[in-house]
Design brief:
397 residues; alpha+beta; Antithrombin, Chain I, domain 2; elongated
Amino acid sequence: MRNSTVRAVNRLTKRWAEHADPAGGGSGTVFTAAGVWPLLALLADGSAGPARAELAEALGIPAEDGAGAARELLAALAGVRGLQAATGLWTAAELPLEDAWSAHLPPGARGVLTGDEDTDRQALDAWAADRTGRLIGRLPVPLGKDALLVLASALALGLRWLQPFDEDSGTLQRGPWAGRDATVLYRSTSLLDRVTVARGPHGAVTVLEVVGSGGVDVHLVLGEPDAAADAVLATGIDALTRALPTTGASLLPDGNPGPGLALATVRAETPEPRLRIETVAFEVRAEHNLLDHAGLFGLETARDQDHGHFPGVSPRPLAIGAAGQSALARFHATGFEDAAVTALAACPGGAAIPRLRYRARRAEVRFDRPFGFLAVHRTSRLVLAAGWVAEPATVGA
């Protein structure tokens, strides 16, 4: 996929993290700009006037390039191992579409809206469930007689860790989660630089790379105890997209050079370095009304139902009546699952003591308080999903 498109999607991810409430009111959140961006790009291709300018600004590319970039991105996503990507378009029978716009749409489901909410809900919810392996079971927009057009995307990611975690139940001992019974994950590796530290405008952030078996990795990001969730995620995104420099643990000094990170040089039986990782399993769900931040997504003017904004889509005046995303992320001992369905609806207008002959580096990183996560395509550095873990998974969950 093009670097310019990757940068544009990652820009929207970072802006979303800064505008939204990553802590989700205490329950955590997950969001996927990669599911929103291509839909906005397709709409931009058929837009006009102020709505076109706003969509272009939100996208970070010219509106006339939107359809081609959307098609290319969706095709590239469908080629990522472990990731399923799909689009769908449903229109009212009486809504004519401009041939030039519909010809630019990516392959995907096509259907007719009957105007009966129960009938349409059943059909579109079934599409969402089928395209996400039933992780998401409902299209995140209302469907009624005023809905003339629904444009939707579905992304579902499933990956396995190259090195699984060991799993145990335990009571967390420190920080805001102290006393909680949680599913604790731990493992060790000789690769100290799986952990890096970046310094952003709001302090240091520790980033742990958890390598997936395909082309996607998950990065856990931990900030200072008093750092805001949006600031931690923004710094993490800048670090992973190389907008900020990072330093690997092998080059960091002994002590506590990053949040949750401890380093020491010790007497050891072998010279091999060792990194011990401890984190928690988590599951986060979120529902987003994109019109709550209409300006962020370039939809401020487009939602004005007193005017039509998409003459390139249909000769009939259209405005955006609803826009939403449902998302889910699960992190566990053997892998990670993430799914998001996004939709835009248009309406009218113990052993023997060893001999310690060597000095070796030892590192330990703990994620035992709220932290962020980023699922990143390894080759392109496209952020596929971002989120915040406000609560650990409870034992048996």
